[in-house]
Design a protein that fits this description.
Layout (H helix, E strand, L loop, with lengths): L2 H13 L7 H8 L1 E2 L7 E2 L6 H9 L8 E6 L5 H15 L4 E5 L2 H18 L1 H6 L14 E4 L2 E7 L13 E5 L13 H10 L7 E6 L8 H8 L3 E3 L17 E4 L2 E8 L6 E2 L1 H5 L7 E3 L7 E6 L11 H11 L3 H11 L13 H6 L15 E8 L3 E10 L3 E11 L12 H9 L3 E2 L5 E2 L1 E7 L5 H10 L5 E6 L7 E10 L5 E11 L1 H17 L9 E2 L6 H7 L2 E4 L4 E4 L6 H13 L11 H11 L45 H4 L15
Parallel strand pairs: 3-8, 3-14, 4-6, 4-7, 7-8, 9-14, 15-20, 17-24, 20-21, 21-23
Antiparallel strand pairs: 1-2, 5-6, 9-13, 10-11, 11-12, 15-16, 16-17, 18-19, 22-23, 25-26
The protein binds zinc ion.
Length: 664
């Protein structure tokens, strides 16, 4: 094609009227899915019948200006957003805004979603030129095409764009947008204002996996709309109904037997029997909704045959039982429903009532890994020692404060840091007379002493100490880490001197309280409990645990006025330490726990002749001032991760061989 032809073509593109064709027709005609997708090759609406009506409601002829999709994972929901953008670029010109949770997400979408679609779709390649072509106006987050421009932004920058008018808005994963009180609904509102000039020709497509009841943006937007549910007919009697997880049945914990029971006739039909009846016209509106606002609910139960199967879902469901984090993930990601957070305020006396009469600092049976969480205040440290067992079972082993001048050098015996080191290095004996050491210590860097903490952690980076910092809501308990510059006592800067880990405090708190709820609901006692406290813990400990409540309207945990919360914070930090890659109690396999049990709770106690069981109850702590390292008697289990049990293996009859590298 010559230059003149190209010029004329671009003029024609810019002035031609909207193509009134629907997005599903556009996809069937033009869209080629790249090789790394579940079904590469030409888009076929027959394979994804549930998506057709959603696309057509976004199409020029629909009469709807907003479409909201509350969706599960791996359903083709992302491809739907791509088709929306692709259709807008090639058929009905206008400015397009794509909003993502972060700028990184925007870049990732461009690389892994938009560019593959563009290069595989000739009509799109004609409209948006290759990036390396001179004058193509195709940059990572800004793409010019005849008749408009596509801009990709992070949600915190969505308001800063000066571009005059926008006709199309894609709001991707809205529940991941950071929010605070005043800003709930801020980005959708902005999108509505920005597109208002286009009246009924504007289109907003927002989608997300829902999160927490009352705080979920997509749930709120879904409820503004006409709330469409997909209702296929029962394969046995033809009765049309929603596929609800509560009607799924399987036999004897065998996922391969899964089917869904009909609410009309009760007959259980298999996945393929239900899904082969799926057609595009099975969506049913269940609410009037605001004018021009359509909303769809799409759980993973509706995934096309051959994608995420019902068998897989049952496997995940069974795995999630008794594990609040996995359960929340299943409810959100697979059922596309909100998780109901425990928001009732727990009284500290109630928590204290569930405490058990075990001794602090003596490790009971069933706990194999110790972690320490440290909170830094202006003039003191608070620390909590937690023991971990199978299934992330946690037992609080100690809580104490160390007061003093935090600016003193850790080598000075008066320094709180010196005392913390002494505490960290002591041994904690279990019922079998084996001594455990602290596997990981996490120290908070917030507050006045950030660089003091950096220096402390930097000097102990090979002694299982990490520096941590709170992350925003919705993040993993221990997530990403980054290198930070460290200023030492002389004012010198060490570039990238310390590795700082980010802690999802809200996630940890939700998990901890959900665990206590699960204990209560299941009526668990003693060693079966997921989270245990000792009656030797001081009242201030229980008061601190209940010093924060989850505020649905803010979507985060908040401290109650005038309350101290160090016991909750240090429990969170000890949890984060347990999730460190070298400890990772949350992903340890059964075989690894078995090995730990074999090492730390040997059944042939005779082998350890002369070692007294640590049966005596330790003195109560209120609050405890750490002592010098306790004299260590062999055999010693040092940092279960790094070193072999040399003192045990010597002279035994070989039953304990092959113990090294158990975690590798
Ligand atoms: Zn039926």
């Amino acid at each position: 094609m010559g230059a003149v032809d190209a010029f004329i073509r671009s003029i024609q593109d810019a002035i031609r009227p909207d193509d009134r064709g629907s997005i599903s027709e556009w996809a069937a005609k033009y869209r080629i899915l790249p090789p790394d997708t579940p079904e590469p090759g030409p888009w076929r609406n027959e394979r994804t019948p549930c998506l057709v009506e959603i696309m057509d409601t976004l199409s020029p002829a629909s009469g709807y200006t907003e479409v909201w999709l509350k969706k599960g994972h791996q359903l083709g929901g992302s491809a739907l957003g791509e088709n929306f953008i692709g259709h807008a670029i090639t058929s009905a010109a206008g400015n397009i805004l794509g909003v993502f949770a972060t700028i990184d997400d925007a870049n990732k979408w461009n690389l892994s979603r938009f560019e593959p679609m563009r290069t595989a779709t000739p009509a799109l390649r004609r409209a948006v030129k290759d990036r390396d072509v001179k004058g193509s106006d195709n940059t990572q987050r800004r793409k010019k095409f005849p008749g408009g421009m596509l801009q990709l932004v992070g949600s915190n920058r969505a308001g800063g764009l000066k571009s005059s008018t926008i006709r199309y808005v894609l709001l991707e994963e809205v529940d991941e947008y950071p929010r605070d009180v005043a800003k709930q609904g801020a980005v959708p509102e902005l999108a509505r204002n920005r597109t208002s000039n286009f009246g009924s020709k504007a289109r907003i497509f927002g989608n997300s996996t829902p999160t927490i009841e009352g705080a979920s943006e997509i749930d709120g937007q879904f409820n503004r709309g006409d709330q469409r549910y997909y209702m296929p007919p029962c394969p046995a009697c033809g009765h049309r109904q929603r596929l609800l997880w509560e009607n799924f049945r399987w036999v004897d914990s065998d996922p391969t037997t899964v089917g869904c029971a009909c609410v009309g006739c009760g007959i259980v039909s298999k996945e393929h029997e239900w899904k082969r009846l799926f057609t595009p016209d099975m969506w049913v509106k269940t609410a009037k909704g605001q004018p021009g606002v359509a909303s769809f609910h799409m759980p993973s139960l509706l995934a096309p045959l051959g994608w995420r199967s019902w068998v897989d879902l049952v496997v995940d469901w069974l795995e999630a039982q008794g594990n609040p984090i996995k359960l929340k993930r299943f409810i959100n990601n697979e059922l596309a429903e909100c998780w109901q957070e425990q928001t009732d305020r727990v009284q500290w006396e109630v928590l204290k009532e569930r405490a058990e009469p075990y001794a602090l600092r003596a490790v009971p049976r069933g706990y194999y890994v110790l972690t320490l969480g440290v909170d830094t205040q202006d003039t003191w440290l608070a620390a909590q020692l937690v023991a971990w067992g199978r299934g992330e079972r946690a037992l609080v082993l100690d809580y104490f404060e160390i007061h003093g001048d935090l600016t003193l050098d850790p080598s000075n015996p008066d320094s709180p840091w010196f005392k913390l080191d002494a505490y960290r290095h002591q041994a904690f004996r279990n019922e079998f007379g084996i001594d455990l050491r602290v596997s990981m210590t996490a120290v908070d860097t917030g507050g006045l002493h950030t660089h003091t903490v950096y220096n402390y952690c930097r000097a102990r980076r090979h002694d299982s100490v990490i520096a941590i910092k709170g992350d925003r809501p919705g993040k993993p308990i221990l997530g990403r880490s980054s290198r930070q510059d460290v200023k030492n006592g002389k004012g010198d800067i060490m570039k990238n001197g310390v590795q700082l880990w980010f802690v999802g405090g809200d996630t940890a708190k939700s998990s901890l309280f959900a665990r206590m709820d699960a204990d209560e609901e299941a009526g668990r006692v003693g060693a079966d409990r997921l989270l245990r406290f000792s009656t030797q813990l001081p009242d201030i400990y229980f008061k601190g645990l209940t010093a924060e409540v989850y505020k649905v309207e803010l979507g985060r945990w908040e401290k109650l006025a005038g309350r101290r919360n160090e016991s909750l914070d240090t429990l969170v930090y000890a949890y984060a330490a347990a999730c460190h890659p070298t400890v990772r109690i949350h992903t340890a396999r059964v075989a690894e726990w078995d090995e730990l049990e074999r090492l730390l709770e040997p059944r042939h106690r005779d082998l350890f002749g002369g070692v007294p069981p640590a049966a005596e109850v330790a003195p109560a702590a209120a609050p405890v001032v750490p002592v010098s390292p306790a004299p260590v008697t062999s055999p010693v289990q040092t940092s279960a991760r790094d070193e072999e049990l040399e003192t045990v293996t010597a002279g035994d009859d070989g039953w304990l061989s092959n113990t090294d590298n158990w975690l590798n």
